[in-house]
Amino acid sequence: QVQLVESGGGLVQPGGSLRLSCAASGSIFSIRAWGWYRQAPGKQRELVATITSSGSTNYADSVKGRFTISRDNGKKTVYLQMNSLKPEDTAVYYCNLDWSTRAPYDRWGQGTQVTVSS
């Protein structure tokens, strides 16, 4: 059974940085494409960054140039480096399979809260 555990969120001022981590136990991690998602209050969950098994990345326009997704197959962990954070980045962040290529796991992790505020 796959377990997804996100961490690294917090309160940061505009312009600041955070690095999120997602540990994926029980998964055939290395051959899957993974994604970071976020959900702000009252909004639908959106896909913000993806990474393929070979390391190719893609980003939503809203985060392009500011966020960087990476992966460590040995640790079964996906990372999201977030720089130049804006108040509109405030959301709960989740990881899961890239749903544009494969159905995500049914059980999502608890997510990690990112709040960007002065």
What does this entry look like structurally?
The protein has strands at residues 3-7, 10-12, 18-25, 34-39, 46-51, 57-59, 67-72, 77-82, 91-97, 112-116. It is an all-beta fold and 118 residues long. The strands form two sheets. Strands 2-10-9-4-5-6 form a six-stranded mixed β-sheet, with no helix packed on it. Strands 1-3-8-7 form a four-stranded antiparallel β-sheet, with no helix packed on it. Strand 5 (46-51) and strand 6 form a beta hairpin. The radius of gyration is 13 Å and the shape is globular.
Query: How are the strands ordered across the major sheet?
Result: 2-10-9-4-5-6
Could you tell me the mean pLDDT? 96
Poorly predicted runs of 5 or more residues:
none
Cα separation of the termini: 40 Å
Topology as H/E string?
Answer: EEEEEEEEEE
What proportion of the residues form beta strands (DSSP E)?
over 45%
Could you give a short account of the major beta sheet?
Answer: 6 strands, mixed
- The radius of gyration computed from the alpha-carbon positions, rounded to a whole number of angstroms, is 13 Å
Binned, the helix content reads under 10%
Total strands: 10
The helix count comes to 0
Structural class: mainly beta
Q: Which shape, going by the Cα principal axes?
A: globular
Please sum up the structure shown.
The protein has strands spanning 3-7, 10-12, 18-25, 34-39, 46-51, 57-59, 67-72, 77-82, 91-97, 112-116.
Kindly list the characteristics that best describe this protein:
118 residues, mainly beta, six-stranded mixed sheet, four-stranded antiparallel sheet, 0% helix, 47% strand
